[in-house]
Amino acid sequence: MARLADYFVLVGYDPGKRGSGDGQGQILQRFPEKDWEDNPFPQGIELFCQPSGWQLFTERNPPTFFVAVLTDINSERHYCACFTFWEAVESAQPQSHPRNGEGEEEEEEPSSPVQPAQLFAPKSLVLVSRLDHAEVFRNSLGLIYTIYVDGLSVSLENVIGNLLTCTIPITGGAQRTISLGAGDRQVIQTPINDSLPVSSCSVALLFRQLGITNVLYLFCAALTEHKILFLSSSYQRLTDACRALLALMFPLKYSFTYVPILPAQLLEVLSTPTPFIIGVHSIFQSETQELLDVVIADLDGGTVNVPECVHISLLPEPLLQQTREALSMVLDPELEVADLAFPPSTISASSLKMQDKEIRAVFLRLFAQLLQGYRWCLHIIRIHPEPVIRFHKAAFLGQRGLTEDDFLTKVLEGMAFAGFVTERGAPYRSIDLFDELVAYEVKRMRAEEGNKQKILRHIKELAEKLYKNENPYPAVTMHKVQKPTEGCHLRLHQKPFPRLDEGTVQWIIDQATAKLQTAPPAVKAEKKCMVPSGPPIAAIMERNGNALANSARRLEVVRNCISYVFENKMLEAKKLFPAVLRAMKGRAARHCLTQELNLHVQQNRAVLDHQQFDFIIRMMNCCLQDCTAMDEHGIAAALLPLVTAFCRKLSPGITQFAYSCVQEHVVWTNIQFWEAMFYCDVQNHIRALYLDNNEENHTDEESAEGPQEAKSALEIASEQLRLWPTMSREKQQELIQKEESTVFSQAIHYANRMSYLLLPLDTSKNRLLRSSGLGDVESVSNSFVTNSIAGSVAESYDTESGFEDAESSDVANYVVRFINRFVDKVCTESGVTNEHLKGLHVMIPDIVQMHIETLDAVHRESKRLPPIQKPKLLRPNLLVGEECVMEGLRVYLMPDGREEAAGGNIGGPPLLPAEGAIFLTTYRIIFKGTPTDPLVGEQVVIRSFPIASLTKEKKINIQAQVDQFIQEGLQLRSCTFQLLKIAFDEEVASDSAEVFRKHLHKLRYPQHVRGTFAFTVGQSPKQAMQPKAKEKNPSLRTLSKNLVKNAKKTIGRQYVTRKKYTPPMWEQRSSQHFPEDNEDEISVSEEMDRSTLTPTTTIKPSDKMTINHLVERACCRDYQRMGLGTLSSSLTRSKNEPFRISTVNRMYAICRSYPGLLIVPQSIQDNTIQRISRCYRQNRFPVVCWRNSRTKAVLLRSGGLHGKGVVGLFKSQNAPTAGPSQTDSTSLEQEKYLQAVINSMPHYADASGRNTLSGFTSAHMSSSGKWGSIRASGRMSSYALNMEIGSRLAGKDLLGAQHNGTPSEASFLRQHRASLYIIGDKSQLKGVKPDPLQHWEVVPIEVFDVRQVKASFKKLMKACVPGCPSTDPSVAYLRSLEESEWLSQIHKILQISVLVVELLDTGSSVLVSLEDGWDITTQVVSLVQLLSDPYYRTLEGFRLLVEKEWLSFGHRFSHRGAQTLAGQSSGFAPIFLQFLDCVHQIHLQFPMEFEFSQYYLKFLSYHYISNRFRTFLLDSDYERIELGLLYEEKGERKSQQVYKSIWDYIDRLNKKAPIFFNYMYAPEDGEVLRPYSNISNLKVWDYYTEETLSEGPSYDWELAQGQPEHVEEADRQDTSAPQTKRKIIWPCYDNRSRVEPDAISKLLEELHNLEMELGQVPERWKDTWDKVKASQRTEARQEGSRTPSSLLMSSGLSHHRRSLGVYLQESGVGSTLNLSLDSDTSSTSTPSSGKQGGRKSTSTLYSQFQMSESENRSYEGSLYKKGAFMKPWKPRWFVLDKTKHQLRYYDSRMDTECKGVIDLAEVESITPGTPTMGAPKTVDEKAFFDLKTTKRVYNFCAQDVQLAQQWIDRIQSCLSDA
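Above: the chain's sequence. Below: its structure in token form.
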């Protein structure tokens, strides 16, 4: 029972406090005057009576009533019902306080001096109660007011006394009728269950005022602890709204500031930092404006304003949507039927009170769904003396799958939920509607989801219950309370409220209290019971099961893998392992892992061998790495016992446990995780404690009810709590003690566990590593890295613990502190005694110290473990003479941006990442290893490139494997379009990686060319390993430089002699000790023959040797081929030859970068040349390099002109000059020189000779004769033409070249044109005016310089071999290709070349004079010759072209390739590569014009930068002579198998195999090629993009050859299974041309193998090929009609010669046969016949192969054959060959030469024949038979009938087989 009201208070206006602005109230009287003991009088009531402040009014207002709520210090709520009315203030009063009065007047109405007639002051009657019966209070106070205002004859003291002594039951649904003794009667109903809030209709009103969405916002804001402020101009509504919000939150209770009506004086409360729900009158709205973090709900306006900085987490979907729908069904039932044509008439919303309960039912359901299964996550830690319960938040969120959900997380962390757990967690208590709902109805709610009718029915049922709870007796609510008469408050002469007599009231109260004390206490037994738990979450969450369905297979994989590990089937396990790691992303798989591992633990221990241990660790790590710190799925919790169970023996007495390898996961540093784990374990132990007790008592019963044994901890607890009061004191004490010691022992256990997981294996590192648990990388399980997690522990906690010196303190202290804090928290919460707690604090440091000691031993031993599980390093094959500089470093080869190898978009197995080793040899960098993916683990991956081609090396950090940590690595990029992205294994110390880089750098940039591989090959490379080699090098370097540069000053001639470098013979090699430094570069010796070569500029003229050598050089041979001159003495030289070979440069005195012999015009003297050369850059004066045999036009090349040369050459001759100056004379000589070139051209000599003269005269005489005018007009047009050429090259097509990029014919066939065009650089020829009197035209063109080529090449490399995968796969490659501008440079070169070809072809000579004459000039000149002269398109000719134009004419290979230290800064410039790319483009367009294949071009591209051969070293012939390279090849070549010249190597290979040969080669005589140069016609060279991972680059032929054989042998072993013929060829792995060679190569190879088998000396492939071609041609001639096979070889293909993949057409033939030599020769297809009948003679293909031994004879014998018409019968030896499908005949059995062949494909029928004239007489006539072919009928006759029959059958069967 409780008092209805505690205090009655009368509050009035305090006149004494006027003047301070607002008035104040004062308590006039209060009853009882003494405070009740159980309930002190609340403070500050006078503020709450007038929340807007006490003021005087000028008129009487009607009485008001509202209920304010005060919360006292014990957070008890007091309901203050305030009934306010107004009383007149006596007008005399202000005079009694004159000072205040004036103040008042000024305040109130300063403008009017007259005081208003009367003022009214408010007075309040207040009831203070702890019960919320607003209506009763309203009635009671109204009654008191009525008695006073209507002057009823009832004693007010009596009424108040009765009111204060009235007691009512609190709950239980009782009904009480009370009367206050004024003839009134009120019925009070108490709610059945006081835990359910009473809301009458306030909730419904709140929804009316604000609407569904707004209220939901407020609801979520309140639950997630935001500040909420209600505004309204009605106090009662504020109270109702606040009450409604609290009613909605049930079953959670709001525990923050709750002030439904906040008085004006307390407005600053709104800026409190804590959450609140407060109501404020809307006149203070302006003051709430500046609140930034408060959600403001305006009840009158119906708005909710959420400030920008506040984020309200809403309910998780689908609950939010479901709640909205349910609310709208309740509040707006018409919505459903609004669209119906015939809406039902009956639908209408329920009454307000009912609606209120329905809304609450919706929210009750919502909470039941949100919190379903919450009891399964409660941990009961203590049962006696008081239950202690904790909620496992992470597990709850995890099982609900809502870990990411903001709303639920915040609710669970909130105070309200903490209260909920405390209040409702108890397992034994009375239960209410919510408990039943969450336990029994969840399944029903789940089932009804989506069915609106059923949901509504459920809501209505719940609403009924709620309504019944508030109104248990709805029938009898009869109140009888007097009300005041209408308008009584306006009576004028109302006397003030009387002063009450305290004594009377007090006496009544005392009477009642005495009576109560004598009455027996009404004990209402609480109905306590065990709280039902409801279904576990797992059962509820079933509907998400589909996610688990497809994971069954994955779980199977996980189980298999684990059983393989424990059965020691490591290979099997390894194959499944990646799948397991992938599966670990799923929760089910992780749970499965923990369960499976559990099965393998016996007696808390499982000892594994190293490999098993490794697997288990990797699985655990993978499993943990996806766990959050919360561990919401309990994975870490399940693994925790396992990590202390799995172990391995490191050495006797030292065991390493799994925990030392799984430390780097956040979860271990999360104190909440440890708490949850601890509580869970404690609960299990306490459960066990009571279960054991029960079992001892009831062993007999146990057997009867076996299955019921598995009681949950909560069930046991509730049972215990029920029994508790019945136990004896001793029994109680004993239980308390047992529980306490259980908790204590667990705390010790956990202190140990935590030290296991927090102390790093290597505790010697005292200083903490502040990183997210990845501080110091230490090798633990030997393929595993771990380190201190304590680092991150420190980080997360030192802030709170207040230790500033975090850095210096060591790991142990941190761990101790962490554990201490944990122990403090859990022990105080679970009621461990203080002595025990102190004992724990003493123990913890010892535990940690002990653990550190054991760890030290483990750490020491684990360091010693041999690395396991790593594949053994595979040694790479090396070339002869190539040696390892550095043994393999274990690395991972990581995938770069090329997708194929990593199993990218084409699929295929991921070959990368691969693990293996990187080797550094004197020649290459080689990676060799195996893919980490076990499915392709048997393959070998090789990626290598020559050291000399390294262009960029940078350090990177890579994560090598999923489960490994970041390692240092290198990215090496090579200009052979290769990229090695390697990550060093953790066993590789960082200093060895450094050593590797240093050596690499040394080898890449040797001090001198002598240091490159081509020179050092075969020497001992050991010097690279010794760093002492530095002392002498610098001096050497300067020496060699000086020798070359200032060779005129012969330095120290006495002792320095350059020795031709001859490597010692193989025999001497062992005995000879090489000095440290490569000393044989320069030898200090006397016995050397002085005359070999002394470092002077010129070679002694006496040295005839040199000249002879020079004559043998390539250029000389070529000059003689073109008839440009022979080297004979000047006397015998015929004068009519226009050109001569000049030896002026034989000593390289004039131009050091030119060859020794040069072609110059006959008429020019050597001394002139010397002078001319000065005008040109690098002294590279114009020389002839090629002559067109038809038009006799010549092609010249030179360097660009120096500035003064330009002016001299192009200034007009008749300008007055002051005397013959030096420049002038040279410019004249220059003119003479050019004129001499022009004169050499035959058509010039006869035609333009006269023309020129007349031109000159007419110009001088200023008379315009006929000649002159013609001359001038002709000249002008020719000038126009040249302008057009220049502008076209500059990229502007004036005269519209044809679209395909070839020059337009029309413009080229003009009548008049210059005899000599000089193609020069636009930038140099600025301001040069064309002079009509000269015979040469200058074509200024814009070319790109070497810098641009370098930049473009860099971009090209990045595009073709990107370092990392691009983000946008569709565009990236092509876009970066375009941005590199490589193709546009190629386009430019081809365009210029084609132009020059046109000019030469139409009879004009051309001088190419660009840059220094050794880069672009060389490219253009070489291409022009290649396009114009078929000779250069043969293997021999191309070699000659390269030797002549590139090597002799001094393209600076060493400089451009940055081959030495000196060139390092300038970087790699691929001028020659660009030229080869151009050749490749032409080759693609004219596949039948080149004798060499595409592979040949790639081979050159690779080796010109590989430094394997000496051919492309050094910058000019001069330097080569200096090093003794040029002539050494003669004598020495035989002795050594190391080939120094690439040409020899190519020749040798070409003899062996047709790899460089193009089968499509069928040249047309003298054809000039004009390729298209538009970018659309250019293709990216596949040299840039392809790679062969199975064997590395295929350009070192010896290395690539050795492999396929082994593979096949390996395959042959397991022939037990039927072998499939199918080959799988992986892109980027297999060498396609080898695995699947083209048809011709394959035939040649088979032929070769057959010959070998038969022990014959195999014929050279070239001879075989030539034979085939020859027979092909003859046959073609005989047959007259061309067969498909001959099409290929014949050279008469007039149509369709230009090919972008020539498709050779043959009518009526379907299939195409791909003929290509190498995977990369352009895939041109020639058709071969589909039907046998389509081919005229199959036999011809085989004719050259007929060795009778190897013949395939299916059946043979002698037959008579009738000759053609009128020929006799002759016996012949016939052979039926099934394989070749033919019938061959020979003169006799022994004959090897086949006389004729009948192709069975042409046979139409075989019939019995009749003897004809001249047939053999003796034979039976049935022995004749005829064979009819498409061409003729053959008559045969056998010896007898049987034989004939046999032949017929045999031939028939052959035909039918076909």
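The chain has 62 helices and 48 strands.
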